[in-house]
Amino acid sequence: MPVTARRTSLSRAQSPISSEASTRPIGRALAKHRKTKPATAPRAAAAMTLSVGLAVSGGAALSLAGTPQTADAATSSAAKTRGSMPIKTKPALRYGDSGSAVKYVQYRLRIPMTSWYGAKTRTAVSDFQRAVKLPRTGTMNKRTWGSLFYIAKHPIKKKSTGSTTFHNRVLREAYKLRGTPYRYGGTTPNGFDCSGYTGYVYKKAGKKVPRTSRAQYSATKHLSRSAAKPGDLVFFKNSSGRVYHVGIYAGGNMLWHSSKPGSPVAKSKIWSSRVAFGRA
């Protein structure tokens, strides 16, 4: 009897299941009944590798590793290729390039040789282009390379602004004092002796020399006649080699000097072969 009751309860419990199964759609009806989800495109996150690990302290450590940037790698490779090309090919160098060709440009433009075409190199190239009257692009093009090679073979001589300027001042001051009377021991425009005249002229031009002709000779750098410039000092020596007179070399075997009583400051020929030249 207990067994029969159990079977009855089981059959009743199963009947709803059978009924529900009988009402399910089958075949095409089942296909229509199901709703298909639209396919989604791979997300940007699929291009990344996501790794989650546990930190030593026990917390969660999250790291994202991006895929290689192939475009950037290609650009970097092209920049190195251009920067390392032979200079005879006149490569078109620009900002961001690197290599031996860039280093050569930096060497010629006298800037730090880093081998990288950065802002300083671009500015130096632009300044060079302006100096040779080319369009200021800041990049190394064919015309800029041509000018750079030409300058390398034919360096621009810088104008001397040191000793040449001083020597010109000496000659101007010497000329201003022409006609000043000779006076033994004189050091002013009221009258000069030989070393008083040279000392005064040099002081006005910007350099101080000792008072006497012998002291001036000792204080100067001795030069050959061929190396002497107008504005240097000319020292006259006697047969024993002692200096007895000094003047200002005017070039072409001439000098400015205050020679003797009755003869004012004037430009004269160098009358002796026993002379020496000095530069203060």
Automatic annotation (TrEMBL):
NlpC/P60 domain residues: 164-280
Short name of any one Pfam family annotated for the protein: NLPC_P60
Keyword Protease: yes
Domain of life of the source: Bacteria
Record carries keyword Cell division: no
Keyword list, A-Z: Hydrolase, Protease, Thiol protease
Gene3D superfamilies documented for this protein: endopeptidase domain like (from Nostoc punctiforme), PGBD-like superfamily/PGBD
Signal peptide: none
InterPro entries: NLP_P60_dom (IPR000064), Papain-like_cys_pep_sf (IPR038765), Peptidase_C40 (IPR051202), Peptidoglycan-bd-like (IPR002477), PGBD-like_sf (IPR036365), PGBDSf (IPR036366)
Region (Disordered): 1-42
Composition-biased stretches (Polar residues): 1-22
PANTHER family named in the record: MUREIN DD-ENDOPEPTIDASE MEPH-RELATED
Family statement: Belongs to the peptidase C40 family.
Protein name listed in UniProt: NlpC/P60 family protein
Natural source organism: Kribbella deserti
Lineage of the organism: Bacteria, Bacillati, Actinomycetota, Actinomycetes, Propionibacteriales
